[in-house]
Amino acid sequence: MTQFQVSPHVLWSLGGLYAILVVASAWVMMLRWRAPEKDRTELVQRIRSWWLIVSIFTLVIIMSRNVSVAFFAFVSFLALKEYLSIVPTRRADRRVLFWAYLSIPVQYYWVAQAWYGMFIIFIPVYVFLLLPMRMVIVGETKEFLRAAGTLHWGIMTMVFGISHIAYLLVLPEANNPSAGAAGLVLFLVFLTEFNDVAQYGWGKMLGRKKIIPKVSPNKTWEGFLGGMVTTT
């Protein structure tokens, strides 16, 4: 198995993240002590999520590359499973879902082999052709296009999209000589989470106008724009 050569830059960055988490946790404890009557459940949950993400990521990058790729494959499985539990699926497509799940280990096998040519076309071409064909063989024509589109969208976002994070781990170290492959993933994950925190902070301070109340009641234009500018 390929072992990561973790850059000192990555270790220092992780140390900084843990320091931020310690300060944030202490700050929340102080707020709850000074004003115990206020509900700070959302803030506590966000900080706990940060602790979990940073801790898991730390374990992932200090292990072998193949274990790290397998971890992201598991994340894709959980994401696709959650997606399929939310969206409506036809009873006739139960067997087709097997092939959708099977695409996960195959897609991440191409990642582990660093076979970019197959990695980039396997789902958008081969899986996109296979799944509708299996649906046709089942013989259920009612809402066929809706079912095929729903399944395609789930695989694109939950498998194909997430697998790009894993592919960063197999890029040549020369692509990022200062921090290596692990640094690329850390950079992506940190910016994503930092944007979420920034949007939350700006939304709490200045949030007035809702973006899409029916989808995300707490999202505001002020929080969205503030988070985008801060992250940039």
Report on the structure:
With 232 residues, the chain is mainly alpha-helical. The protein has 8 helices and no strands. The protein has helices spanning 8-34, 41-62, 65-86, 94-112, 116-138, 144-168, 180-206, 221-231. Helix 5 (116-138) runs antiparallel to helix 6 and helix 7 packs antiparallel against helix 8. The longest helix has 27 residues, at 8-34. The two termini are 36 Å apart. The model has no long low-confidence stretch (mean pLDDT 88).
Number of strands: 0
Sequence of secondary-structure elements: HHHHHHHH
Number of DSSP helical runs: 8
Q: What is the averaged pLDDT score?
A: 88
How far do the termini sit from each other? 36 Å
Radius of gyration: 21 Å
Uncertain residue ranges: none
Major sheet: size, sense and barrel closure? none
Work out the strand percent.
under 5%
- The SS-based structural class is mainly alpha
Helix content: over 70%
What gross morphology would you assign?
globular
Helix/strand layout:
Elements: H1 8-34, H2 41-62, H3 65-86, H4 94-112, H5 116-138, H6 144-168, H7 180-206, H8 221-231
In short:
The chain is an all-alpha fold. The chain contains 8 helices and no strands. It is globular and about 65 Å long.
Give short descriptive properties of this protein.
8 helices; globular; 76% helix; 0% strand; 232 residues; mainly alpha
